[in-house]
């Protein structure tokens, strides 16, 4: 039988382990009772008490450790298109290559909610992409370089540099390139599940960026001129009115040293793609109201969650061109809202 002094040593050791384990555990343990158990029943009880402590620490501390390790979704994402590798996708073939920038296929797909995908397709000379149709996704194609065509249902739509095309969810489509040089196309997809079903337009809705005149927009400085390319189905100001989830597709031409003023959108997600020029991208801000500033160059793309501060300052010696798109965040649609 262990001596009384030895029992006391055992009890103190058990109590120490309990205290050292976790403050959260201590709130749920009666240390005096555990000490008495150890004193009365000796070394065997010590082993049981230690096991009990370990079990309780695991139960109560595991959620705390989980909470500390939990990843917080960022308020914005940035990608350098030249550094993003090719990703297997629905349209991928031996001659059609896709780089996922945001949404499906990207490393942070859950951050982007209303936008299904945003990426860059490169079609080799005499190449073709896979035929696709998404029942709950409208798409927009914007040609950055080269020429090509789209199989649009039973029709063939020709494409040249800076053409853009709206593709409703009801239409099967595939990109092709019959030229001797690669064709580069930005593909944007918008989730339409839960939105009212609409009939496809009687003919494909296509236009060219250069054919859309520049204009100023209320609330933004004159140093930024806008080409209003596409709006929602009720738009009266945009060249094409077609979007259900898409609210505004536009090109900004920002003068040297100019800006569009940092701002935010309470109900919409937004993406900027720098087509040319360089400057400073504004993304996010702190409690002090100071905006986050990030060097930006041609090929940089930024995704902004709703309510994230967004803006751009062109460097003093260069004009910048930025392709931008906004779309509804699910559940935040406001009929008749200005964009």
What layout of secondary structure does this protein have?
Elements: H1 4-21, H2 23-26, H3 31-41, H4 43-69, E1 76-80, E2 96-103, E3 115-123, E4 127-128, E5 137-145, E6 148-152, E7 155-159, E8 163-167, E9 173-177, E10 183-191, E11 205-208, E12 214-215, E13 224-232, E14 240-243, E15 246-254, E16 268-276, E17 278-285, E18 291-297, E19 300-304, E20 310-314, E21 320-328
Parallel strand pairs: 13-14
Antiparallel strand pairs: 1-19, 2-3, 3-10, 4-9, 5-8, 5-10, 6-7, 6-9, 8-11, 12-13, 13-15, 15-21, 16-19, 16-21, 17-18, 17-20
Overview of the molecule:
The chain is built from four helices and 21 strands. About 7% of the residues have low confidence. The strands form four sheets. Strands 1, 12, 13, 14, 15, 16, 19 and 21 form an eight-stranded mixed β-sheet that branches. The chain has two domains: 66 residues, no CATH class; 253 residues, Jelly Rolls. By secondary structure, the protein is α+β, with helices and mostly antiparallel strands.
Low-pLDDT runs of 5+ residues are: 6-29
According to DSSP, the number of beta strands is 21
Shape verdict: globular
State the helical fraction: 10-25%
Overall pLDDT confidence: 86
CATH H-level superfamily of the largest domain? Jelly Rolls
What's the main sheet like? 8 strands, mixed
Count of runs of 4 or more consecutive helical residues: 4
- By secondary-structure content and strand pairing, the structural class works out as alpha+beta
Task: Please give the domain count.
Answer: 2
Separation of termini? 83 Å
Query: What's the CATH architecture of the largest domain?
Result: Sandwich
> What Rg is obtained from the alpha carbons, in whole angstroms?
29 Å
CATH fold group of the largest domain: Jelly Rolls
